[in-house]
Amino acid sequence: QCYMKDQYYGTCRAKCDPNALETNGWSCETRGSRLPQPAPKSDPTVQKVADWVAEKCSKEGEDCRTTTCCAESGHQCFEKNASFAMCKGSCTPGPDMYDSDSKEWSCQALGPVTPGDKALEPWELQKNVSAWVAKTCAAEWEENCAQSKCCTKVGDQCYEKNSGWASCMPSCTPGPHEGDESGGNWSCNELGTRTHRAYPSLFCFSVMQPVGYEPGLMKAQMNTGYG
What's the pTM value of the predicted model, to 2 decimals? Predict the structure, then answer.
């Protein structure tokens, strides 16, 4: 994860603690998203599922309310609403940005997880978010995402301030926020899921002079998240 020391310098670290000796005085503010770990390798000790699972259980995209089991390894049947449920690798209550519409999922689990390899997430399978995300989800900082529970910008998560306001941002620290003119504390409860970019991703590396116009240019680049 990229952690900031100050407004001009940041570096990739496994963790950052402003009170630790090595990072004392750092703001430890995050930039971008943490690099996901590779999918775990197959566990030879996992018991093989029965042959009937492939025939009787639901496949990807099928309604699994009746079978309450999934044919693919690492999948589990999750309820969207009273009318539909589907096999997925994971489920977070709220809208699924890879679904055909923005209706929320309850994510109530129906049945067990099918043994085997861990299921890959949609972005790990190089899937892009659905077209409705650009129209329905909130932009970073200025729009309220309390109702949509999703964000248009890659790397953002919808964080709740209170029951009436939530905002899309890369990270959130509970308590008062600098620049929040309305005042008050943020709960920073996560609403929905973080917006991901489909794999593979490209990263921009920059080198700058410590004096002149370059620090200001770099600051503007980091604030926007673009290279």
Answer: 0.65
